[in-house]
Amino acid sequence: MARVAGGDSAKIRAALALIRQAGTIIKEDRFEGDEYQLFSNSLEVAKRRYRITKATVLIGAGWPQEALDAVDDVMDLPPMGDMARMNAFTNYLWAQAYADMGTLDAAAIPAQEALAVMKHLNSVVNIARIAGLQSQLALADPKHIEVIRLGVMLRE
User: Fold this and answer.
1) Which pairs from 108-112 meet CB under 8 Å and 24+ separation?
2) Where are the domains of the chain?
3) Is the confidence at residue 7, as pLDDT, over 80?
């Protein structure tokens, strides 16, 4: 959403307002009773997805510190089943936020972890995202050992 806004602050604020509205609905958690038991896991996934979407919008808006706060919220959620792709994408968001703040170590290491999972899952789109992140990091410091390692991992 924020990426489509193209830096237009009114569109970014509108995207964030929609995200907040979704968060309010999810946080209400008024689903009690046996008839809603079927949806309890779906609600937990929705809470996780909401926080990831919020972090994605904040990164796109150019607010990496706020994005890190949203990613921290995801990390505070209890683990759920096999969510390898979502967990790896969360690591990518973490890495991208740190890269945008210029913290190379904190960016390259979680990017490596995300890349290993994304390669295993053959997630071409997410591998491409990590390749873009690696290019960003290489521009900042092409001799940084973790940045070089990430580049090698991409070529393997």
Assistant:
1) 108/137, 108/144, 108/146, 108/147, 108/149, 108/150, 109/146, 111/137, 111/150, 112/146, 112/149, 112/150, 112/153
2) 1-65, 82-156
3) no
Burial (CB count <10 Å: 0-12, 13-18, 19+), residue 4: exposed
Taking all residues of the chain, what is their mean pLDDT, rounded to a whole number?
84
Q: Which residues, other chains included, contact 94 with Cβ-Cβ below 8 Å and sequence gap of 6+?
A: 68, 71, 106, 110
Number of Cβ within 10 Å of residue 119's Cβ equals: 17
pTM over 0.85: no
> What does the alpha-carbon distance between residue 28 and residue 24 come to, in Å, rounded to a whole number?
6
